[in-house]
Amino acid sequence: MTPRHGLLRGKVALITGASSGIGAAAARVFAREGADVVLAARREDRIKSLAEELRSEGARAEYAVCDVTRAQDTVAAVECAVDRFGGLDVAFNNAGFGVGRTPLHEMGDDLYDQIMDVNVRGVWNCLQAEISAMLAAGTGGALVNNSSVGGLRATPVAAPYVASKHAVIGLTKAAAAEYADRGIRVNSVAPGTTRTEVVGAWFDAHPDMEAALHQATPQARTAEPSEIAEAAAWLCSDRASFVTGATMPVDGGFTMV
Q1: Which helix or strand (DSSP H or E) is residue 238 part of?
Q2: pLDDT tens, position by position, 193-213
Q3: What residues act catalytically?
């Protein structure tokens, strides 16, 4: 049931990478907090099913098949929000791609290009489409980009991923500075290790790595996707009205040690 009151009540929200993991969790959290949601991802079967699930619980939800590396797809996703729900108030630019455990000198250009294309150009494309819609409406808004603790601390054998997530924080700050006087806030979250489908499968295959990451994290555990989604929802809400250009670590204390 959609609440009468919630952090995002009355907001129209776009969530990219919504087919699984943090994005799917964000769709549920944002809808629970009262937002009308547009789910954007490449896997149509996943986002269609999730939209139907949310509608069955009383939320208003639509979906748009979207590859964030294609500018026309991000424009279409924003247009879906405007056409179906009358505008765009908030967005969580969550779609991303990461591959680790490959030394820099052994990594091929094709993998470097793929990581940078999704993680940097993807956020760039989203910001351009979302900010354009918000400026046209003249009502402001709030955007949250998904970075990583890799955007705050370098880790070995993941150089392009670390570079891409530093770039996301740079884009966040630049956009926040440029559009603050137009009523648009731009922030980012920096998740620590989070038990998504991909990470869960990796840990199942390498339990020693999960134990090592827990040892390096003061809270000594892995995050659930919903914990990252909750932070993004708060940053998108009016409760964070004086927060812009910030990067919020959601990492169990990993980056403070």
Answers
A1: none
A2: 999 888 888 888 888 888 998
A3: 161
